[in-house]
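We close this part of the discussion by returning to an individual protein. The encoding preserves chain order, so positions in sequence and tokens coincide. The sequence in question and its structure tokens are set out directly beneath this paragraph:

===
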Amino acid sequence: MGKETKACDTFRRHLKDELGTWKEEGLVSTEQAQTLSERYRLDDMVKERGRALMLAIYILGAAMIGGGVVSFVAAHWEFVPKPLKIALIIAVMLICQVAGFCLWQVSDKRRGVGHALVLVGTLIFGANIGLIAQVFHIHSHWENGVAAWAVGAAVMALAVWSVPIAVTATILSLIWFCAASERHSYTMLYSIAVLAVFLPVAFRKQSRWAYLSAVLAAGIGLVTSSAQNCVYGQGEQWWVLAWASVASLLCAWGFLARRTRFDLFGPPSVALGYLAAGIVSYLIAFRETANELSAQTKWCLDALWPWQVPLVIIAVLSLIFWILCIRPREDKAALPLRTYSVAVLVMVVAATVIGRDWLTVVIGNVAICLFAVGLIHNGFLTLSRQSYWAGILTIALVIASRFLEYETGLLLKSAIFTGCGIGLIVSGTWFEGYLRKRRLCHE
């Protein structure tokens, strides 16, 4: 039996579709096809989709049942004594948690139902926090309750290694951070904490959902902290550098992960990092943003401590990962996109450091156009419609933004927008023809 290899579902789906054609055309033998099927577990794909669908149905059904129970209790809430209220809400939560754990982890007979019940128990835990505060008339900031809910959900996610619960806890923690970051300085450590807590779940369960939710929350936390910790409106440059650093780390780690046993997280990291680089280059291309950056006559060193500690760590890790990406044998498909990533990020940092409004605008526009060209180039190399059209639509967005931002005549705007529409249709038709020719050449 061949060695099993973990790969993304998209690759496995395409491989399964093509494997029958390869056998008919004699490109692979029956034994080779069977080896590939065992290596990538192609026969298990239908079962995996079925299990995922049933888990989603169980979670939705259990959530609706939980909502019905909560609604029933709420309808008679005023007539229930306080001790009975506390006993009732705790009993409902424990029943869901214990029954779910037994079905999922102990008996192993109804794993989907058990997993759904554990998740519903976690949701009921959050409702119980609010109900207990109401019973005892506890008045506090609402985000404190969300923080307690997030901590409880995180503990449960690590206890049973549940991806849905981990994603739920990550979302709750991000909601707390967005509400509390303006009032508490210690929220600067949020990015480190969310990665330390939730990345183990992602790596152990090989889940892109848990990975992306944790990375997104950490990135948002770092950029938000850098923007909010500037003193008296000084140091606006730091949020741009924080954004660029996060994008750089994601891209570098993504390209490097493709060569390691964490290759499952490589493509989404590259996609997310490259998207972040494009967004920040698009933002600094606006005159208003460039004026805010150039208005800072000096770098606000008072804002450097202590939130920049994670930023320094990210910058160092990013540099190390970029160096490790340099190998004698380069991936021909990944090398151009990696080059575009570095170029866009360097231009963003240069525009921020220079701090000249008109030059920042010019560099920002060049960077976002280079970002779009990178997507188009990658679309040609990988024959990816998504990448090609993302690049084309980015160029259209840049042109539309610039003509809406600057005052021009209506006739000129009409001509430009009409030309863009014609260009989209022509380029789309031409690219589809190019794809057909390439596929015919391969056949």
